[in-house]
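Priority: medium. Attachment 1 of 2:
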């Protein structure tokens, strides 16, 4: 699953660590999600959407 996390995080000026703290995971988890090595659980995807104030569909693409 592709995602736009690096771009969305960059638009906010957030580091990977900052995003990790906002959603309650490790920095390594954020790195793995951004690189497409890990697909987040549904609850984690909802936390990302809530923190980024975007619908899940604007963050993730199931292509």
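Attachment 2 of 2:
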């Amino acid at each position: 699953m592709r995602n736009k996390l690096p771009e969305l995080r960059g638009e906010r000026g957030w580091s990977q660590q900052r995003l990790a703290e906002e959603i309650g995971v490790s920095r390594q988890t954020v790195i793995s999600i951004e690189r497409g090595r890990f697909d987040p659980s549904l609850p984690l995807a909802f936390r990302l959407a809530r923190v980024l104030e975007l619908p899940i569909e604007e963050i993730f693409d199931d292509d």
